[in-house]
Each structure stands twice: as structure tokens, then as C-alpha cells.
Design a protein that fits this description.
By secondary structure, this protein is α/β, with parallel strands linked by helices. The chain has seven helices and eleven strands. The strands form two sheets. The chain has a nine-stranded mixed sheet, sandwiched between helices. A two-stranded antiparallel ribbon has the order 9-10.
Amino acid sequence: MTRILLTNDDGIQSNGLIKLEEALSQIGDVFVVAPASEMSGASHSLTLARPLRIRQIDSRHWTVDGTPTDCVTLALNKILSADEMPDICASGINHGGNLGDDATYSGTVAGALEATILGVPGLAFSLVARENFDFREAAQFAVTAVQKVLTEGLPDGTLLNINFPAGEIKGVKVTRQGIKNARPVISEHIDPRGKPYFWIGEEYFNTNAADGTDYNAIEQGYISVTPLKSDMTDHNALTAIETWNYLNDAELIQKS
């Protein structure tokens, strides 16, 4: 029987996670290790400055008071037994898209990334909507995607970042990451004790919805499937940087 690890960044009570578990239970034994509370924007952060607490809900569900990365790390190294080690990890379904540069901030993507780094194929699922979240079609496609990865495999170090459009789905496109054009908007407030606090948001200007990008696929009503790698090396820049004369620069620093 296929064993599937589930996590997310919206927390154990998230409807997207619940729908994903219901769907994937059709094809395997599902184990859920998810944050105890919302961890959106946690990216690939690992908690090192404080202890973590694990709470077992039942034989298939655990919460961790940490990030999605913490959840996957603990699931694979502490929580699950040798007989429960997963064949694949699914993260999501996220309330909101993880397109373009936002994938680098995403705890949803990070959960799948951590599994991939630890040798378990990872898939991240996100629904590009701001309200009226209907996860049914996304959850059913997740079954197809998981089965496909189990059958075909993925290259080492590669995960799939899958985003679903809201509304009617026209099909599936394999895409590259687009680029967003946004700036941070910082809102300052005063708490009841008279001390300032700050809330970070974003103001979008536009996005790079060029042909072949994840943004473009979503705008056209297609599911976007973007392969991402844990290797962040810019291979196109290697040759150019190798021509830099570091020795002369080092000599100049020593003489100054």
C-alpha cells in the first residue's frame, strides 16, 4: 500500500488539508504532520532557537508548533516508524496561489522541498483564489498528480509546484516561474499599551504573464505544473563569474 505524508502551512484545521487527505486516502495510507497554527510565509525556515512540541491527535495525525519544514523533518526522523516511511509527500492545498517569486516565501512549497531534500518526492498544491475556496477539483487532480509521480518518478532534487485556477479548469500546462512586480506595504499601528507594531503586506503592480509562465497558465484557466529544484545554482552565470579575476582583487585589498 502506498504511504503518503501530508503537511501544509495553513495549519492542521485547514479545509484545504482536509480535502487533500480525503482525496489521497483513496490511493494510500495517509499520515498528516502539520503545523499547530498558520505558518504562511514561513518559507524554508527551520526552528533552531526554541524547542518544538509534537502533539499526537490519533494514529494518523500529529501537530507540531513549528514550520512546515519542522513538520516534515520531524515526521521523517522522529514521528513515523520505519514501517510508516512515506513513498511521497504532498503539501497543501494552500489557501491562495504560490506563483512566481512567491514560491520562495511559501511554507507550502517548503514542505514539499524539505521532503525532496530528505529523499521523498514532494508536491506542493495551491488554489489561486482569495475567497470562496472550492478544493474539490484541486484535490481530485492531486490524486492524479501523486499517482503520476509514483509511476514516472521525478529527477533527483526536483519537486512539483502545482497551482489551480479558481473556476472552470481548461486543462494542464507545464510552466516556468513568472516574475511579480510588487513592493512591500508596511502598516504601523499602536497596541493597547501604547507601543507600535507593524504589519507587512504587498501592493501588486503587475506580473510577468508571458507565454509559458505559471501566471499565464492561471490567467488562461489552466492548472500550472512547475518543476522546481533544491539546487539554486544559476548555471548560466557560472561561466561568466569564472572569468572574474579574484586574485588581482585580493591583492588590491591587501595593499589598501
